[in-house]
Amino acid sequence: MKNQKTSKPATQEEKKLTYLEAVKDLANIIDSMENANLNMDELSEKVNAAIKRLEYCKKALHVIEQNVNGLIKTGIQYTEENNEQ
Prior knowledge:
This protein is mainly alpha-helical and 85 residues long. Helix content is 78%, strand content 0%. The chain has helices spanning 12-16, 19-34, 40-84. The longest helix is centred in the C-terminal third of the chain and has 45 residues, at 40-84. It starts with 11 loop residues before the first helix and ends with a helix.
């Protein structure tokens, strides 16, 4: 059997979504859950939507962290090279 990833590929909507938009969307989902009398089906939909947004934000933050770490390493190498001259 082949190894299969458990996460689904990003939807077209998620590809266009910025991190800030995802955070705002998550806040709106949470507000709607707190301020409404929801039946179990509606609550389940909201929880699933919130989980998707949290996963998106977590992935986005991971990419940002990698980029920052790369910049830090590049900056350190650049500084060390300049100090040697």
